[in-house]
Amino acid sequence: MAVTATDAHGTIDAVWRIESAKIIATLARITDDVGLAEELAQDALVAALEQWPETGVPANPGAWLTAIAKRRAIDHFRRAKVLERKQRELGFEAEAPHRNLEPDDVDDDLLRLIFTACHPVLSTPGRVALTLRLVGGLTTAEIARAFLVPEPTVAQRIVRAKRTLAWKRVRFEVPSGEELSPRLASVLEVIYLIFNEGYSATAGDDWMRPALCEDALRLGRILTGLAPNEPEVHGLVALMELQASRSRARVGRSGEPILLLDQNRARWDQLLIRRGLAALQRAERLSPLQGTRSARQGRSRPGPYTVQAAIAACHARAATAEDTDWVRIAALYEALVHLNPSPVVELNRAVAVSMAFGPAAGLALVDALADEPSLAGYHLLPAVRGDLLARLGRSGQAAAEFQRAAELTRNARERAVLLDRERNCRAEGDR
Predict the structure, then answer these.
(1) d(CA 144, CA 20)
(2) What is the residue extent of each domain of the chain?
(3) pLDDT for 150-209, tens place per residue?
(4) 10-15: long-range pairs with CB below 8 Å, 24+
(5) What's this model's pTM, rounded to 2 decimal places?
(6) 102-207 placed in CATH 1.10.10.10
């Protein structure tokens, strides 16, 4: 049954979002070329745009697109005079073009695609762009809008990433043995980078970009199904679910940021909290926190995402800001410093210590980071210092820190909040 072009295009867009990663993954296994796989999948998409308005949407649109893409692959290899060998690899059945793929095959191919798109041989911007394009199903324009960079820049990153994969002869496979850990760490890093950019936009006029958070969560949830025995995968998903649960409470009516301690916790998404706590429980079963019975029995200790999820869980379990177990959070940050030492983690620990043991204790830790080169342009260093000084009643010094933080941030909403705090501190100092 024919449908209108508008209805068909809407359906195709929805199907592509859901099925494109699986189709590209299947074709990448067959062709051993991620760039070619995407081209073949795009050819199938064009065919759908041409045919579905007249023929109607097939019963299994994903299988239809895969079958068409495989036909394009055969045409490609025929031209390359390697049809016979590749046709055996394709396992193509012309008499059954809408045959469903086996779920295990799809899962394995999708996992290979994620590991390929996030390969450490690529630059971080390249990994992010390629992952959102191939696995997330976003267009170049959508990625450019999300990260506030020109569309040609994103296109260049994607092209360069594909060329690098081909030039380095990166195999389309899930790594094993000693190669697995660093490759998995790269995958998780990319997904969390995408989430973080959505959760706290580094630049632009919006405090959050929820669509990026949703894309990262979807990628993380896919990965938990594909790698169910990897504790840090569950830890990352737990962290994202718990942080995403606060999204509605983080932004005011006019789009202004609302900081954690000022949020209306009744607006926190309880479903996401339950999902996050369940994911954390799975991560801790696989890699228990220090001091638990399982940890004493010698099982592997948790990674940084699981520890960060445990910190987020402390906030999620607190009915009010005053109920927050800051002593436990400070201890968890201490553990995180040992797992993932960095000045940013130290800064976050200083905030937790200030909440648990007073602003003077936190300020001492912050001041120890004053000469850290990597934090020289980091706006949150003076922002945190300003907050601690304000809590100690040193309003004039706090105002200067908030002004400096406002000058460093590239996010308009955050700048407005910092300047407002500066004005309040100056007014307090004038009394």
Answers:
(1) 19
(2) 5-101, 102-207, 228-321
(3) 999 999 999 999 999 999 989 888 887 778 878 888 899 999 989 988 898 777 778 788
(4) 11/52, 11/57, 11/61, 12/45, 12/48, 12/49, 12/52, 12/61, 15/48, 15/57, 15/61, 15/62, 15/65
(5) 0.78
(6) yes
